[in-house]
Design goal:
With 821 residues, this protein is an alpha/beta fold. It has 33 helices and 25 strands. The structure holds pyridoxal-5'-phosphate (PLP).
């Protein structure tokens, strides 16, 4: 089936949606597509049959959308991302197709429990964290606001690793999300491309070839085959395509070798190709320095670019109009090599001259920056880049000489500044700077929160910004409220509808009408009941999963996100140790019962992050077994944090921990999900927390700690953590306890170096912010003791978070960057 509509063909009659017809359809799918009857069917079979029934309706809408896009001949958006953290799709698709209630009723009539089979759908974890989840929210919002878009990425056979906790340590296991097949995807062999690596570059043989036209003869080739997944927008208005590439060998087996007895050698090429799309690099905010990672980046960029150019030329027959018909968004620098790839296609395959090609390229691309951490700025050693992509290396040099020429002629820069603008880092081992390449090759460079965008102008891209002052702009992140409110928090969703009607379902800013109910005691009681039910559900889940006993009436204080020093889970744990100490010293005080929940994965090579997981578990064991704090403090690390776990935990949170060192979290999106689900935030003025404070009101959020400017100032003045620690008895005691092995009697020096890092440099300002954080936590306790006030604040949070819908973000991208109506 070719979805890229040609002439309008007869469409099948619209399917009926009523529970009885649907039940019939589900049984039919079960019988004829799965080959079982209702008595023999296992829960997995039911799940499959239900998905097929939903899918058929999605396909009807998909074909219509594709047809419409084709007829309109407008600009399409291509979102290139190495990560799409989409999670489960069944509820999302059914709910957006407005058939969830019917599915539920149909299954009820068949005696099948929707919740049970929904749990069996694998959680597609093709991403690490926030960046990948943003791409997933954007796909849903682009379909919702009717932007014709394709997402391009990699179909990792094993996505993000599954995390188990063994004796408190993280253990990484492969995720086998495709084990039972994937009913959502369609293989499209007809749209496969060859991807080359290595080899040599010859002058073009064409006599009319332009100066820059060359012929690349790769030494190695693999096939990229796409798998398409339909992404449904709200109310099914538009269905876009997520196209994920899989690597396949050109020859599945070398038969001559096999017949000669070399069985392994015969499969070597095949294994090598397949290894390319096997795993997602489990590195969040830091570059994976492996050759395989660069191969993955080029593989999916090249396949996507070939696909985009092929589609364009097929429809419009003129490569020069590409920028009018295609807007390509680079999600961070992972696909930045696409800039050089498009140049290669335009120069070598289409024979354009350099200026023309460069103009087309820059008008087509835009780039989103996600991090300012110096260690996370992607760059590749020149020798590696040259060996793997010899033609692209030439193109990078050619772009660079043009770029540096422009910079010199502007007269604005000294030699040092020219050095920072260069695409090649000449300090030490020469490296290709992917951020500079993405910047140079794009007409728009955006940050993901107001603060982050400001800092971007002042730091990483200061000189490039002076050269091209109109390019940097801000697009504050958002999240899709369909998944992160309507689906994950059914109780709150129904309560809101009952209070203010349905308008917020199409316009999240209409949540503002809830403000009127914030102090209404009848509404407050219902709000509290919903929150309590969500907490009880989480408590049950944690009892099943990790045998934890958690009292749903305690304050649920949750920090879930990747484990990283800048996110400061360590600060949270130190504060917990200090609180534990204070409760033991003053058992007579009126302590607020608290449950502290942690969750998150550590990159496999990130030693300190893994140690922080172990520390959380070590402290939890000590605290949870101490009768002196029973009922007052409980700590639990929740294994394998992923989208599905987030969907359970966020609706159950009272307090959301967003405590990164100011200036280091680009935006955060977890912060938004919690607030819209009625948690209060304890946070620093970092990333989008700043804008959240502006929206919810400073009286409805608990802010503490140094600002980004103050962090800089402290560092510039020569920050001495020892001085700070000496002035805080609580901090000194907590650090001493951790360092001396109170929580690790089996290995007393386990945390010595971790704590020493705080004394020696404390790069992440844990000590500097400790007192402020600790007193903010006591303010939280005081608020909790006035339940009505707490709920009033929480309701204001829900009411005022509408702006953080990813629909708003996408409308801004569409209007300012992509210029699509
Ligand atoms: C939202 C989300 C994130 C991002 O969380 P931050 O707190 O913004 O870092 C990471 N992982 C999952 C599974 C998410 O749903």
């Amino acid at each position: 089936m070719n979805l890229e509509g040609k002439a309008p063909l007869p469409m099948p009659a619209p399917r009926q949606v009523d529970p009885q017809a649907l039940a019939h359809e589900i049984v039919e799918r079960l019988t004829y597509r799965i080959g079982k009857n209702a008595t023999a069917a296992k829960p997995h079979d039911w799940l499959h049959a239900v998905i097929l029934s939903i899918r058929d309706r999605v396909i009807d809408a998909w074909i219509k959308s594709t047809q419409k896009t084709y007829e309109e001949q407008g600009r399409r958006v291509y979102y290139l991302s190495l990560e799409f953290l989409i999670g489960r799709l069944m509820r999302d698709a059914a709910s957006n197709m407005e058939m969830l209630d019917d599915v539920q009723a149909a299954l009820d009539s068949l005696g099948v429990d929707l919740d049970i089979i929904a749990e069996l759908e694998p959680d597609a974890a093709l991403g690490n964290g926030g960046l990948g989840r943003l791409a997933a929210c954007f796909m849903e919002s682009m379909a919702t606001v009717d932007v014709p878009a394709y997402g391009y990425g990699i179909r990792y056979v094993n996505g993000m690793f599954r995390q188990e906790i063994s004796e408190g340590w993280q253990v990484e296991l492969p995720e086998t999300w495709l084990a039972h097949g994937n009913p959502w995807e369609f293989e499209r062999r007809e749209a496969s491309y060859e991807i080359g690596f290595g080899g040599r570059v010859d002058p073009s043989e064409d006599e009319n070839a332009s100066l820059h036209q060359m012929r690349w003869r790769p030494a190695e080739r693999v096939i990229a085959t796409p798998y398409d997944t339909p992404i449904v927008g709200w109310r099914g208005g538009r269905v876009n395509t997520l196209r994920l590439w899989e690597a396949q060998p050109i020859d599945p087996i070398l038969l001559d070798r096999f017949n000669a007895g070399d069985h392994l050698g015969a499969l070597a090429e095949s294994n090598r190709a397949e290894a390319l799309t096997r795993v997602l690099y489990p590195a969040d905010s830091s570059p994976a320095g492996q050759e395989l990672r660069l191969r993955q980046e080029y593989f999916f960029s090249s396949a996507s670019l070939q696909d985009i150019v092929r589609r364009h030329v097929q429809y419009f027959r003129d490569i020069h109009t590409l920028p009018e018909k295609a807007a390509i968004q680079l999600n961070d620098t992972h696909p930045a090599v696409a800039v050089a790839e498009l140049m290669r296609i335009l120069l070598d395959d289409h024979g354009l001259d350099f200026d023309e090609a460069w103009d087309i390229t820059r008008r087509t691309f835009s780039y989103t920056n996600h991090t300012l951490l110096p260690e996370a700025l992607e760059s590749w050693p020149v020798p590696l880049f040259e060996r793997l992509l010899p033609r692209h290396m030439q193109i990078v040099y050619a772009i660079n000489s043009r770029l540096l020429g422009e910079a010199r002629r502007s007269g604005k820069f000294d030699d040092h500044a020219i050095g920072t603008i260069s695409l090649i880092d000449e300090g030490g081992e020469r490296r290709v700077r992917m951020g500079n390449l993405a910047f140079a090759g794009s007409h728009s460079i955006n940050g993901v929160s107001a603060l982050h965008t400001d800092l971007m102008k002042q730091t990483v891209f200061a000189d490039l910004h002076r050269l091209y002052p109109a390019r940097i702009n801000n697009k504050t992140n958002g999240v899709t409220f369909r998944r992160w409110l309507m689906q994950c928090n059914h109780g709150l969703f129904e309560l809101i509808r009952e209070a203010i009607g349905d308008r917020f379902m199409d316009d999240p800013e209409a949540l503002r009408e809830l403000d009127r109910f914030a102090a209404d005691s009848a509404f407050q009681d219902k709000f509290a009941a919903v929150k309590h039910a969500n907490k009880a559900a989480l408590s049950n889940l944690l009892r099943q999963r990790v045998n934890a006993r958690i009292d749903p009436s305690a304050l649920f204080d949750i920090q879930i996100k990747r484990i990283h020093e800048y996110k400061r889970q360590f600060l949270n744990i130190i504060e917990a140790v200090s609180l534990y100490d204070q409760i033991r010293s003053h058992p007579e005080k009126d302590w607020v019962p608290r449950v502290k929940l942690f969750g998150g994965k550590a990159a496999s090579s990130y030693h300190n992050a893994k140690l922080i997981i172990k520390l959380a578990n070590d402290v939890a064991r000590a605290v949870n077994h101490d009768p002196a704090v029973q009922g007052l403090l409980k700590i639990q690390f929740v294994p394998n944090y992923n989208v599905s776990m987030a969907e359970m935990m966020i609706p159950a949170a009272d307090l959301s921990e967003q405590i990164s060192t100011a200036g280091m979290e680009a935006s955060g999106t977890g912060n938004m999900k919690f607030a819209v689900n009625g948690a209060l935030t304890i946070g620093t003025l970092d990333g989008a927390n700043v804008e959240m404070r502006d929206h919810v009101g400073e009286e409805n959020i608990v802010i503490f700690g140094l600002t980004a400017a103050q962090v800089n100032e402290r560092r510039a003045k020569g920050y001495d953590p020892r001085e700070v620690i000496a002035q805080s008895r609580e901090l000194a005691q907590a650090l001493a306890a951790i360092s001396s092995g109170v929580f690790s009697p089996d290995d007393p020096t386990r945390y010595k170096d971790l704590v020493q890092g705080i004394y020696d440099h404390d790069w992440f300002m844990v000590a500097a912010d400790f007192e402020s954080y600790s007193s903010a936590q006591r303010r939280v306790d005081a608020l909790w003791q006035e339940p009505s006030r707490w709920i009033e604040m929480a309701v204001h949070n829900v009411a005022r978070m509408g702006w953080f819908s990813s629909d708003r973000t996408i409308r801004e991208y569409a209007a300012d960057i992509w210029k699509v109506p």
